[in-house]
Design a protein that fits this description.
Largest sheet of chain A: 10 strands, mixed
CATH superfamily of the largest domain in chain B: P-loop containing nucleotide triphosphate hydrolases
Mean pLDDT of chain B: 93
Strand content of chain B: 15-25%
Shape of chain A: elongated
Number of helices of chain A: 13
Helix content of chain B: 25-40%
CATH topology of the largest domain in chain B: Rossmann fold
Distance between the termini of chain A: 80 Å
Number of domains of chain B: 4
Radius of gyration of chain A: 25 Å
Number of strands of chain A: 20
Largest interface: A-B, 84 and 76 residues
Oligomer: heterodimer
Low-confidence stretches of chain B: none
């Protein structure tokens, strides 16, 4: 057991976010340390490696101002915990969990380890409740369900914040009025972006149902490692103990991964792809897998992580590893954005893995699956023809091909594009889809079974 | 036997070092720290042992004790395995949930199989008979589908001197005694086996029979044999998991072991909720009655993830030894390799390619080599098999990375998933030009004998047509389709039918999800006949525009959805109408 009263002044090395302390005794892996620099400011840290007589610490809140002479270190014997209470709703917290909105400290109902524990796969309930986001490309073609983790793959300069705010504002489960909450975690975003979300939440009255955790661009990078864990621990508390449906927005995961790389480099670990640590997959999974439903519990956690793809590259390790863990992805495209289409969702690259179980007669509408499949294939075919037309000209196309070519244009202009406050119901989305599909010859709609064609194909 | 306790000197994530461990064996299981976390020794140097711990290590520190068990990581084998869901080191997750709640906490353990449940044992061996390892001494009805054959454990040989009468026994009760030169051995239904060692067989045999999966592109174009190995590499979202689930559902194996290795929690839940409701088309019983799940999701400890594939293959071997054909799906072997990499990194080993340990290739090979069709242990000659299908998740979809490349050097079937196909929602997104199967010649005889003589020829023709399409497409990209001569355009029409209506298959459609071999054959035959007929019609002067407007194409497109008990008649009608329709076009031209 660590003696909590001992202050060690035996710091041997300060390197990046790491601190090496000698002569320690009874240190345990993962415990929290309090570090006081020569400047008298106290910082939090965590044990990364515990040896007999030596400990390697990771310092949150940065190592600026620490030295090897005056710095003192105290071990707390506890892992990183966060104080939780329903009073956190409507409040704003820093990366170290302290309120930064000028309000009083939280009086904790419970304290929880921020690392959480994996949900037992046998305790999970399969997500299948349709969430209507009011956005056609999501509801119609990449349906989100409660308990899913569906990231937005974006890039710098694209309107991912607007889209995320619109989803947070419009998301609802049909025919139900239940307690919901939003946990918003900012990692290294600018104050301006943070303000955008805050204002948007205020404007729509969502703020009082939200908990905000903010680590802004000028806050210590290392805090980005713990802040999503604080947010998710809060979400688990609200969902599984207080029965709320929690939507967690994590932005920007790219900054999180950069922080992870920074620590790995400081520890001189063997780097994996592009310098990111080999355990980044496991580390990200420890965040993303904290979404879900638990059998017998009323509340749920749905996650929308946002990440900006460096150089629009989807094969970059950050989007790549994320895509391997999350249940699909919503991808934004610069090309559509340039065409002036909002939201610039490029459906071909999108996917929702939990869609099939969340749609259909009792959840959305009986024809939903077939219509979605038909939209995909028709749009893909139209897109192929665009390339062909560039070479051979439109005259060389058959009548059938021309219809597909036209379809892909109106699909983008009318189905993909919608207003920033336009909240389309699922029926509106599907009816719009039928209207557009009706521009194609009926016999080409091969993916839709006959009974739905007879029932829904618009009569001229 | 009591062992001396070791002392922890270093903790770094899942890797712990301890001293005073002299005499410990490599791969021995140890209990680490006050909470007794399960770990395994993976390195020894003097009296120091390096231990990988299967649970989260926060709160553990130098000075705490390490207790030895004297035994390597082993599975508990016996009736009660089927229908279970285990973590990577065979802890039963439902029982863990009962003890620890919805989240997996540390230091929790539960018996892998029910030790108190009484099973109805029926002896089949008689007293006085000479027995050897693998011989069946009795049976237990484990599920409605599976008869559990209680075997003499490997390595035991001698005379059966005692066997209990038919009746109800627990797995620990002694049910038989075997006398050998070394003395008497008591046999219970329960036996232990170390996961890192393959269970012995008499010899491996060449595979001959296909593993029928009901997936058209797999069975007809790139078949895997019973006892074969296959890999499905593909970027995220290309359909690895859907394909693995389809195989777990419909493959005609007796037992399915599904290893969710470092993947999503919700996917395992999907299997858990879906399989008890799905009915096996061959037996009419719920699929869960033949399935064992290993779920070590991505957020569960990595060391246990490393062990999970060995746990899976050992369970598969145990049922193979009973004489069953077992299919094992590992999703995903890349996560397994990454677990090795992570532990290797913590050990500060010299990294090989992309940070993976230098022994990656040999570990992969050793795993796949535990598959195969075999003449199994025992006095009688019995044959059974393990087929292994491994998903691979290459970073960025780049197949040149080490896990994919080392896997392809071993497996005989390659199903190449393709992002471009996925983006146009062509499912399963298996690229027919890049995939291959080396079992074609082996399974040819089975298809000829059981489905149709000309199966192989049809397949060859269809493949050639698809190849031709790929070549023609290149020209079309330059000059447009109308610039092609009519005969070539007919080839495009013919191949389009195969591509859209045969190669594509809807896993979520109640009928299309499983396509019986005979139906596959008939579909392909009609499609090729369609191609022959339109070629013939074009030669006789029918215009390509008329061919494009044929109504028969719509009928052909709907073939896949015709219910599996009425397709023969429906197909005959479709074939007849097609002949009539094209025939009348030819007639028009003549007149």
């Amino acid at each position: 057991m660590t003696d909590k009263s001992i202050e060690y002044r035996t710091v041997r090395e300060v390197s990046g976010p790491l601190l090496v302390v000698e002569g320690v005794h009874g240190v345990t892996y993962g415990e929290v340390v309090k570090i006081k620099g020569g400047d008298g400011r106290e910082r939090l840290g965590q044990v990364l490696e515990a040896r007999e007589g030596l400990a390697i610490l990771q310092v949150f809140e940065g190592t600026t101002g620490l030295d090897t002479k005056n710095t003192s270190v105290r071990f707390t014997g506890e892992t990183m915990k966060i104080a939780l209470s329903t009073d956190m709703l409507g409040r704003v917290f820093s990366g170290s969990g302290k309120p930064i909105d000028g309000g009083p400290e939280i009086i904790p109902e419970v304290r929880r380890d921020i690392n959480g524990a994996p949900i037992n796969p046998a305790a999970r309930e399969f997500p299948r409740e349709f969430i209507q986001t009011g956005i056609s490309t999501i509801d119609g073609m990449n349906t989100l369900v409660r308990g899913q983790k569906l990231p937005i793959f974006s890039a710098s300069g694209l309107p991912h914040n607007e889209l995320a705010a619109q989803i947070a504002r419009q998301a609802k489960v049909l025919g139900e009025k239940e307690e919901f909450a939003v946990v918003f975690v900012a990692m290294g975003i600018t104050a301006e972006e943070a303000n955008f979300f805050r204002r948007d939440f205020e404007r729509t009255g969502a703020l009082e149902r939200s908990v905000l955790f903010l680590n802004l661009a000028d806050d210590p990078a290392i805090e980005r490692i713990i802040i999503p864990r604080m947010g998710l621990t809060t979400a688990e508390y609200l969902a599984f103990e207080k029965g709320m449906h929690v939507l967690v927005i994590l932005t920007d995961m790219t900054n999180y991964c950069e922080a992870l790389r920074e620590i790995a480099a400081a520890r001189q670990e063997v780097p994996g792809r592009r310098g990111y640590p080999g355990y980044m997959y496991t580390d990200l999974a420890n965040l993303y897998e904290r979404a879900g439903r638990i059998y017998g519990k009323k509340g749920t956690i749905t996650q929308i992580p946002i990440l900006t793809m460096p150089d629009d590259d989807m094969t970059h390790p950050i989007p790549d590893l994320t895509g391997y863990i999350t249940e699909g992805q919503i991808v934004l495209s610069r090309e559509l954005h340039r065409k002036g289409i909002y939201p610039p969702v490029t459906v071909g690259a999108c996917l929702s893995r939990l869609m099939q179980q969340g749609i259909g007669a009792e959840r959305t509408r009986e024809d939903h699956a077939d219509v979605a499949s038909q939209l995909y294939s028709a749009y893909a075919e139209g897109n192929d023809l665009r390339n062909l037309v560039a070479v051979v000209g439109e005259e060389a196309l058959t009548e059938r091909d021309k219809a597909f070519l036209r379809f892909s244009d109106i699909f983008e202009e009318r189905f993909v594009a919608q207003g920033k406050d336009e909240d389309r119901s699922i029926d509106e989305t599907l009816d719009l889809a039928w209207e557009l599909l009706a521009t194609l010859p009926k016999e080409e709609l091969k993916r839709i079974r006959k009974e739905w064609l007879d029932k829904y194909y618009p009569k001229k | 036997m009591e062992y001396e306790e070791g002392t922890i000197i270093r903790v770094a994530g899942p890797v712990v070092e301890a001293t005073n461990m002299k005499g410990a064996e490599i791969y021995e299981v140890v209990y680490v720290g006050k909470e007794g976390l399960i770990g395994e020794i993976i390195g020894l140097k003097g009296d120091r042992a390096t231990i990988q711990v299967y649970e989260e290590t926060s709160g553990i520190g130098p000075g705490e004790s390490v207790k030895r068990t004297g035994a390597p990581l082993s599975l508990t084998l016996g009736p009660g395995l089927i229908g279970q869901i285990y973590d990577g080191i065979q802890r039963p997750l439902p029982a863990i949930k009962d003890v620890a709640g919805d989240f997996i906490s540390r230091g929790v353990s539960a018996d892998p199989i029910d030790m108190d449940k009484k099973w109805h044992f029926v002896p089949v061996a008689s007293k006085g008979s000479k027995l050897t390892g693998g011989d069946v001494i009795g049976t237990v009805q484990e599920t409605e589908l599976i008869e559990h054959r209680v075997m003499v454990p490997p390595g035991i040989e001698g005379e059966l001197i005692e066997i209990v009468a038919e009746g109800d026994y627990t797995v620990k009760d002694t049910i038989a005694k075997v006398k050998s030169a070394e003395g008497e051995t008591e046999i219970a239904m329960l036996q232990k086996w170390p996961v890192r060692h393959g269970r012995p067989v008499k010899r491996f045999l060449p595979p001959e029979e296909p593993l029928i999966t009901g997936q058209r592109i797999l069975d007809t174009f790139f078949p895997i044999a019973k006892g074969g190995t296959a890999a499905i590499p593909g970027g995220f979202g290309t359909g690895k998991t859907v394909t693995q689930h389809q195989l777990a559902k419909w493959a005609d194996a007796d037992i399915v072991v599904y290893v969710g290795c470092g993947e999503r929690g919700n996917e395992m839940t999907e299997v858990l909720t879906e399989f008890p409701e799905l009915i096996d088309p061959r037996t009419g019983k719920p699929l869960m009655m033949r399935t064992i799940l290993i779920a070590n999701t991505s957020n569960m400890p990595v060391a246990a993830r490393e062990a999970s594939v060995y746990t899976g293959i050992t369970l598969a071997e145990y049922y193979r030894d009973m004489g069953y054909n077992v299919a094992l799906m590992a999703d995903s072997t890349s996560r397994w390799a990454e677990a090795m990499r992570e532990i290797s990194g913590r050990l500060e080993e010299m990294p090989g390619e992309e940070g993976y340990p230098a022994y990656l290739a040999s570990k992969l090979a050793a795993f796949y080599e535990r598959a195969g069709k075999a003449s199994i242990s025992g006095t009688e000659d019995r044959i059974s098999s393990i087929s292994v299908i491994g998903a691979v998740s290459p970073p960025g979809g780049d197949l040149s990375e080490p896990v994919t490349q080392n896997t392809l050097r071993i497996v005989k079937v390659f199903w190449a998933l393709d992002t471009a196909l996925k983006e146009r929602r062509h499912f399963p997104s298996i690229n027919w030009l890049r995939s291959y199967s080396l079992y074609l010649d082996d399974v040819k005889r089975w298809w000829s004998a059981n489905v149709a003589e000309d199966w192989f020829d049809l397949r060859k023709r269809a493949m050639a047509l698809l190849q031709k399409e790929a070549e023609l497409q290149e020209i079309v990209q330059l000059v447009g389709p109308d610039a092609l001569p009519p005969l070539e355009q007919a080839a495009l029409e013919g191949s389009r039918v195969i591509r859209e209506d045969f190669l594509q298959q809807n896993a979520f459609h109640e009928v299309d999800t499983y396509c019986p071999p005979k139906k596959q054959y008939l579909m392909l035959r009609i499609m090729l006949e369609f191609y022959d007929q339109i070629t013939d019609a074009i030669k006789k002067g029918v215009s390509i525009e008329k061919i494009r407007k044929l109504k028969s194409k719509t009928d052909i497109a709907r073939m896949a959805r015709v219910p599996n008990d009425e397709y023969e008649k429906a197909f005959a009608d479709i074939e007849m109408n097609m002949r009539k329709e094209i025939g009348s076009l030819v007639k028009e031209v003549k007149e």
